[in-house]
Amino acid sequence: MTISVAETGAPIGVFDSGLGGLSVLRELAKKLPLQKFIYVADSGYCPYGGKSQDEIIARAVAVTDFLIARGAKLIVVACNTATIAAVEYLRANYSLNFVGMEPAVKPAVALTQSGVVGVLATGAALAGEKLLRLIDRHAGNVRVITQPCPGLVEQIERGELDSSATRELLARYTQPLLDAGADVIVLGCTHYPFLRERIAKIAGPKVQLIDTGEAVARRAAQLIAERSGQIAPPAGTAIEWFSSGSPAQMQRVGAQLWGESFRVMALPV
Ligand code: DGL
């Protein structure tokens, strides 16, 4: 395969309805330390969880067009809800590769000892057929219980990881899964890994929490290696940050979630 120099230095686009995708970007940056990334937080339209499929597709298209215009060679849809609603549309309408999120139902089913698995996700993700198909395909004899979590994404977007309101929501959403005997809980939204420690406290040491950030990063790294090898700029991971909401808000909460501060530009779409 001929490798174009322009492509080797081209960025990987990563987007989410907000800051949840940072949990995926973290894994991507670990696996691909020499790549450039553009991260788009579509915070002006967050949460996707309460939106119709058509609305989510419209936003996924707007963000994809923006990322392609900035030279993206691969796009990671770092949002379970957008993946479920829009990734098939994106793959059918664009020629570049999209890596999407898939809630970790398959590994959860393999891990459970109690025969009960819980899935925490947004309402829109749970309403999508893609997740139902995933459960149908992998559950076998395991009981898979799904729990929508309205309000949780908004708490994380505000940077309220440990407020009493967040703790109350977490207890309300996690308890029914524990009562049903779940010993594995799937974090089916990319925002939720930021609450992992709080959920673990409620669930106790016998319950395993799993997400798909690492698996998605592995898939993206594999696609990049297939296309061009890991040839890239020498300066280490470089990230450009955009938000369709308030850049100042993203800078404030993003620094808290990412662990260091960065400069955010306004998304023009
Ligand atoms: N991080 C998104 C996900 O993985 C949150 C969706 C939302 O905005 O409701 O589903």
Keywords:
17% strand; globular; 6-stranded parallel beta sheet; 4-stranded parallel beta sheet; alpha/beta; Rossmann fold; binds D-glutamic acid; 269 residues
Q: Can you tell me about this structure?
A:
The strands form 2 sheets. A 6-stranded parallel sheet has the order 4-3-1-2-9-10, sandwiched between helices. Strands 6-5-7-8 form a 4-stranded parallel sheet, with helices on both faces. It is built from 12 helices and 10 strands. Helices cover 46% and strands 17% of the residues. With 269 residues, it is α/β, with parallel strands linked by helices. The chain has helices spanning 5-8, 22-31, 53-69, 80-93, 105-111, 123-127, 129-138, 152-157, 164-179, 196-203, 213-228, 247-258, and strands at residues 12-16, 36-41, 74-77, 97-100, 116-121, 143-148, 184-187, 208-210, 238-243, 264-266. The protein has 2 domains: 5-101 and 213-266, 3-Layer(aba) Sandwich (Rossmann fold), CATH 3.40.50; 105-210, Rossmann fold (3-Layer(aba) Sandwich). α2 (22-31) links the parallel β1 and β2. Mean pLDDT is 93; it is low at 1-6. The structure holds D-glutamic acid. D-glutamic acid binds at residues 16-17, 20, 46-49, 79-81, 122, 125, 153, 189-191.
Please state the structural category. alpha/beta
Give the termini distance in whole angstroms.
35 Å
Gyration radius from CA atoms, angstroms: 18 Å
Biggest beta sheet summary: 6 strands, parallel
How many beta-strand elements?
A: 10
Ligand list? D-glutamic acid
Examine the coordinates and then state which fold CATH places here, giving the name of the CATH topology of the largest domain. Rossmann fold
- Low-pLDDT runs: 1-6
CATH level-two architecture of the largest domain: 3-Layer(aba) Sandwich
Net shape? globular
- Largest sheet: spatial strand order: 4-3-1-2-9-10
